[in-house]
C-alpha cells in the first residue's frame, strides 16, 4: 500500500496544506520542534485513529482548536481511496471515520491502512505500565486479524457489565455474567497467546540474524485465567470488581529472569523495541503478503545504525518508509536509493526534492 | 419564532425514537398541511392505542383482548415458549410462519450498568408458566448482544432444574452474505453451531 498524500487541519503544529509523498522512501528533516514527528504522527493517526506517542488524543489538537481532521489518499490493490478521520474535543468527543466520503465503522476503517511505527516513545512497551504491553499485543493482533477488535470491544462490554453488578452488591445474576466473561475472554487470550508466541520466535530470529549482543530477551505471555471464578467469588464481591481476565494479562520482557527495562541500557531498549517492530512487520507480511507503511521516528545515535541499515535493506522492496532524524547522516542508507526529502519548518513543508 | 402550538407539537415529536429536531419539524409542517380529519384520525389513533392496548397477563405481549390472540389461539402449541426481550420482537418471528408455539416477553434484558437485574425483567412469570406444567421446550430468542446473551444464560440456569428443554436461537452467517465479510464472533459462533449435512 502507498500513501500518496496527506492533509491535516488543526493537527498539532502542522499547517493546513496537502503534502504529497514519494511512493517508496520519504525523509523528513528539519530542526527540532518544527513538526517532523507530528507529520509521522498524523500518518499514524490517519491509519489507526490513535497516536504512537500518547494515549491522550486531546494533545493532538492544535492549541485551542475544538476539532482536528486528517485525510489522506491511499493506494492499495490498484485503487485509490480517500481516508479521513475527524475528531472533536470537549464534551461531544464525536469521531467521524470516512472512506471516500462515506462513514464507516471503526473495525472497517482501521483495517484499511496498516502502519507500523518505531519511536522512542514506544519504549513504554518495556518501561510503561502493563496496559502498554497489552495494547502493544492487541494492536499487533488487530493488524493481522481484522475481527480481533470486535472481540476486544465485546469483552470490554461484558467486563463493564460484570463490574457494575459486582459494585451493586447484588449477585443474583452473577453466574450468567461469569459464563459470559469466560466465553468472551477466550478469543482474546487465545489470540494473545498465539501472537506472543509467533512474535517471540520472529523477534529471536531477527536478533540472531543481525548478531546483536543482547540475545537472551525472553517474551512471555501470562494470561490471567478466568476458569475458576467460584474460588475467588468472595474476593470479587469484596473488591466490587472483576479480579481476573484479559484486563490482568501480563506480557513480560525479561533478560535472565529480570525485567528488560531494569537490565538494559537506554540504547539497548531502543534496539529491542526496533527489533519488535520489525518482528511485527514480519508477522504482518506473512499474513498478507503485502508491505505495510513503516514509520521510523527520530533515528538517533543510541540506535545501532549498522544494524538499522541492514534491517532497512532487507525490508520488502515496495515498503513505503517515512523516517525522521535531527541528524540527516543517520538516514544515509535510505538516501542511497530514490527518495523524497521533505524539509519541515514551523509545521510547514518548506521544500521537497526528489533524489537522486 | 415558531407559534407555541406548533413548537409544542415539534417538541413532542422530537421525543420519539429516531426522530431528531429536523424530522420533527418536517412531520409537524406536514400534519399542518393535511385536512383536519386526517390530523384527527392520527390523534385518535394515538389516544386509542393508549386506551385500548395493554399487556397480556400470560405473555406480556401488547394486546386488546385478554389473553392475547396468540395465547388464546387453540392451534398454537402452548408446550413451546419462545422468549423475547420486547413485544416488537414478536412480529419478526411471526412473519416467518415457521413458529407455532407461544411467546413470553421479558420486557428487557439484564444490564447491571443500567441497573436492570433479574427482578426487573419477567423471568419469574416464565418460571411460573413452566412450573405449572405442559411446557416441553423454551426457545430463548433474546438479542445476540452482550446483554441478551447474559439474559439467555441466566434463563438457562434458572430452568436447569426443571423438566424442560432449553434452546437458544442459532447464530450464524446471514443468508445471501459472503463468508469474507463475516466478523470473527459471528464466524466462530457459526462454526460452533455447525451441523451435519
Q: What's this, in brief?
A:
The complex is a heterodimer of chains A (356) and B (197). Chain A is an alpha/beta fold and 356 residues long.
Written account of the structure:
The complex is a heterodimer of chains A (356) and B (197). Chain A has a domain of 179 residues: Rossmann fold. The mean pLDDT of chain A is 91. Chain A has 356 residues and is α/β, with parallel strands linked by helices. In chain A, 40% of the residues lie in helices and 24% in strands. With 197 residues, chain B is an alpha/beta fold. Chain B has a four-stranded parallel beta sheet with strand order 4-3-5-6, with helices on one face. In chain B, strand 1 and strand 2 form a beta hairpin. Classes of the chains: A alpha/beta (356), B alpha/beta (197).
Entry keywords:
heterodimer, A: 356 residues, alpha/beta, Rossmann fold, six-stranded antiparallel β-sheet, six-stranded mixed β-sheet, 11 helices, 15 strands, 40% helix, globular, B: 197 residues, Helicase, Ruva Protein, domain 3, Dna Topoisomerase Vi A Subunit, Chain: A, domain 2, 2 domains, four-stranded parallel β-sheet, two-stranded antiparallel ribbon, 7 helices, 6 strands
Shape of chain B: globular
Uncertain segments of chain A: none
CATH architecture of the domain at 1-114 and 292-356 in chain A: 3-Layer(aba) Sandwich
Main CATH class of the largest domain in chain B: Alpha Beta
Helix content of chain A: 25-40%
**CATH fold field value of the domain at 1-114 and 292-356 in chain A:** Rossmann fold
What is the CATH architecture descriptor of the largest domain in chain B? 3-Layer(aba) Sandwich
- What shape does the CA trace of chain A take? globular
User: What percent of residues of chain B are in strands?
Assistant: 5-15%
- The overall pLDDT average of chain B reads 92
Q: Mind describing the biggest β-sheet of chain B?
A: 4 strands, parallel
Main sheet specs of chain A: 6 strands, antiparallel
Helicity of chain B, as a percent range: 40-55%
The share of residues in extended strands of chain A comes to 15-25%
CATH topology of the largest domain in chain B: Dna Topoisomerase Vi A Subunit, Chain: A, domain 2
Low-confidence segments of chain B, given as residue ranges, are none
Number of strands of chain A: 15
What's the helix-strand series of chain A?
Answer: EEEHEEEEHEHHHHEHEEHHEHEHEE
